[in-house]
């Protein structure tokens, strides 16, 4: 692959990123704009151009899966030697390598959870908190450590940061201090200590710093808006004053400030590096214009909006739906019905997600989906490759791979093995049996995909082991239930944002202006997870018969098609879903239109309307030609009803065309001139006649 070959298929802004092979470079990349594509092509272009050796590149991400995706894409681009790791994985590798030389003895053991050590710390100070309280205390300790605050300084630092500790600050200090003492005494390190020790070893041992800096000369950091002070310290230590650094991030997706993450390193990059190239990616390839428009309008109302408005690149899709319910069970049942309708219409359930602000909201949706017979999976409940049935399957497959004959067919062999532990031709009704079946079915589907590519059983087992190490689970059939925070970085064809009320989004304990704005960004992240179908809903009461005192989120003010404050006293709220949309009246008899086709035509189906039949035929012929040229179905350009509406109104100006329901700025820009030309020609023929 030649250097210029790497640039093929990139849009102008992505190409600019790929060609900026020397740092410092700051890429401000909006949701769905292809940032991973841009930075992997930048690395590949730099390697192919001879700017840097692949082994000298360190690409840093925040999740194991993201690192795995980077490595996979770089392999496809012919640059397999690039190191792509999380901050913690890169630091642990270096710390483990140098520990025997500069410290001596065995490296410390890594703990993945603070809870066991915290339980012992509680015993040492005679405290007996419950498990949920312990998790909150662990989060406080993590915040303190990433912001470089020691136990003795915690109380003052927490007060200045406006934090509300789960227990009195003095107790957090005592537990934090006891936790650190036990950790050191037992020769353990947590994730924060790994970063801290790696930076310290490099600072105190020049030969270590020199060797690491000799190895890594070219740095790329993804999701830079989520970097915390401790990660920034380690990054600066790695760089050692050099500036061959490319950072990528989106200030509009800053949603982890409570963990110590801060966007100021991203937004202030050009101040820290005055010579930096700053490139914006704003072409959204993920979502329809309707979804993108709503996302932009949510941010337009921000207190200090960041100028990174998205520009949709996909064809038009359905308008977002806003729905109001009497109570939470009614909302969950309504969402379950809507999900079932989408699934029946051909949208796979694995491409549908229900997103909420806090995990406690999931229970009512689990019940509703179980009742409706809709499969679902709760994201964050457990990791796919840690499920008992998956572990058992991998063990059996690994054993079979060792004794596999050359002529064994992959898919039938895997199906036979999985059938022995519960994979049946038809899915069980629900519950745990359905969850187990879905896991095994996902493995079987993955085997069929690999078999189609010519893979065998050993290759399949190797693929499973790679995916397990990268936490890259195969798609499991079922609707995803997840918190908005857990959904970041993911996308689905259809997204339901539920519980969008004041007090939940923004959450009730978000009090300061900065906290409120972070909640707004959280809604933005949720909206931009949707490719095509998007619904936002809220319930007026928690329980059936309860006081209906809730209000839609303030972030929706002016966006739902009705005034922000609605009077509900004049008529009772319906039991079922009520879509919120601006009314459309018939332009002939003034009757309110209900049917979507009538709304698009702008008249009742029975009301008379004159139109030029020849114009309609020419519009259809033009549409067919464009569809063939662009290789898309004709309805993607304009539906039959839309063409009839155009023929009836014969628009000759932008204002006239935009007045037709369903035609937005994107279609105006793409097809407006052609439509106007056809309409003017028809008008000229009429006048000549």
Explain the overall architecture.
The chain folds into 5 domains: 3-94 and 195-281, P-loop containing nucleotide triphosphate hydrolases (Rossmann fold, 3-Layer(aba) Sandwich); 109-186; 321-380 and 478-556, Rossmann fold (3-Layer(aba) Sandwich); 384-466, no CATH class; 596-685, Orthogonal Bundle (DNA polymerase, domain 1). With 689 residues, the protein is α/β, with parallel strands linked by helices. The strands form 5 sheets. A 7-stranded mixed β-sheet has the order 13-14-12-15-16-11-17, sandwiched between helices. A 6-stranded parallel β-sheet has the order 3-2-6-7-1-8, sandwiched between helices. Strands 4-5 form a two-stranded parallel ribbon. It has 28 helices and 19 strands. β18 and β19 (592-593) form a beta hairpin. Mean pLDDT is 86; it is low at 563-583.
Features:
689 residues, alpha/beta, Rossmann fold, seven-stranded mixed beta sheet, six-stranded parallel beta sheet, 28 helices, 19 strands, globular
């Amino acid at each position: 692959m030649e250097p210029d070959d790497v640039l093929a298929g990139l849009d102008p802004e992505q190409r600019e990123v790929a060609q900026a092979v020397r740092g410092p470079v700051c890429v401000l990349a909006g949701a769905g704009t292809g940032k991973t594509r841009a930075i992997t092509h930048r690395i590949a272009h730099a390697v192919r151009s001879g700017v840097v050796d692949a082994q000298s590149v360190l690409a840093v991400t925040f999740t194991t899966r993201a690192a795995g995706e980077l490595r996979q894409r770089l392999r496809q681009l012919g640059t397999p030697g690039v190191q792509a790791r999380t901050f913690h994985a890169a630091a642990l590798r270096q710390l483990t390598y140098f520990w025997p030389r500069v410290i001596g003895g065995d490296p410390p053991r890594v703990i993945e959870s603070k809870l066991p050590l915290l339980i012992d710390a509680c015993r040492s100070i005679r405290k007996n908190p419950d498990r949920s309280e312990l998790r909150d205390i662990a989060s406080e300790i993590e915040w303190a450590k990433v912001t470089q605050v020691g136990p003795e300084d915690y109380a003052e630092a927490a007060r200045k940061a406006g934090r509300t500790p789960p227990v009195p600050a003095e107790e957090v200090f005592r537990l934090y201090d006891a936790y650190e003492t036990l950790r050191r005494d037992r020769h353990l390190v947590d994730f924060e200590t790994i970063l801290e020790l790696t930076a310290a070893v490099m600072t105190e041992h020049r030969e270590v710093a020199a060797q690491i800096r000799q190895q890594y000369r070219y740095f790329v950091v993804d999701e830079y808006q989520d970097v915390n002070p401790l990660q920034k310290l380690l990054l600066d230590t790695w760089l050692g004053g050099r500036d061959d650094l490319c950072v990528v991030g989106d200030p509009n997706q800053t949603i982890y400030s409570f963990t110590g993450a801060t966007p100021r390193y991203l937004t202030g990059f050009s101040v820290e590096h005055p010579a930096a190239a700053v490139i914006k990616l704003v072409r959204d390839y993920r979502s329809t214009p309707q979804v993108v428009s709503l996302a932009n309008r949510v941010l337009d109302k921000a207190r200090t909006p960041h100028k990174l408005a998205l520009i949709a690149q996909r064809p038009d899709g359905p308008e977002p739906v806003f729905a109001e319910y009497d109570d939470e069970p009614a909302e969950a049942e309504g969402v379950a019905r809507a999900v079932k309708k989408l699934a029946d219409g051909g949208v796979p359930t694995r491409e549908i997600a229900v997103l909420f602000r806090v995990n406690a909201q999931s229970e009512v949706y689990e019940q509703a989906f179980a009742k409706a017979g809709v499969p679902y999976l709760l994201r964050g409940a457990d990791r796919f490759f840690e499920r008992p049935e998956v572990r058992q399957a991998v063990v059996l497959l690994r054993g079979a791979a060792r004794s596999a004959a050359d002529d064994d067919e992959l898919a039938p062999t895997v199906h036979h093995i999985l059938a022995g532990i519960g994979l049946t031709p038809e899915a069980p009704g629900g519950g745990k049996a359905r969850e187990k079946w879905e896991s095994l079915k996902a493995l079987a589907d993955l085997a069929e995909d690999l078999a189609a590519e010519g893979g065998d059983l050993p290759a399949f087992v190797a693929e499973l082991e790679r995916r397990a190490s990268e936490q890259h689970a195969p798609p499991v059939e079922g609707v995803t239930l997840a918190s908005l925070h857990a959904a970041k970085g993911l996308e689905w064809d259809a997204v339901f944002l539920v519980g969008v009320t004041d007090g939940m989004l923004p959450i009730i304990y978000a009090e300061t202006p900065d906290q409120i704005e972070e909640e707004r960004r959280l809604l933005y992240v949720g909206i931009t997870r949707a490719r095509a179908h998007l619904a936002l809903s809220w319930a007026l009461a928690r329980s059936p018969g309860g006081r209906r005192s809730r209000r839609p989120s303030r972030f929706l003010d002016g966006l739902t098609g009705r005034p922000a404050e609605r009077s509900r006293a004049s008529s009772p709220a319906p039991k079922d879903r009520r879509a919120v949309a601006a009314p459309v009246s018939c332009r002939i008899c003034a009757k309110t239109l209900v049917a979507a086709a009538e709304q698009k035509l702008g008249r009742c189906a029975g009301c008379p309307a004159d139109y030029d039949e020849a114009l309609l035929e020419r519009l259809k012929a033009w549409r067919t030609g464009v569809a063939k040229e662009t290789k898309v179905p004709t309805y993607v350009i304009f539906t039959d009803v839309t063409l009839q509406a155009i023929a009836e109104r014969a628009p000759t100006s932008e204002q006239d065309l935009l007045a037709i329901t369903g035609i937005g700025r994107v279609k105006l820009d793409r097809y407006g001139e052609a439509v106007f030309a056809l309409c003017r020609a028809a008008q000229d023929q009429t006048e000549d006649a």
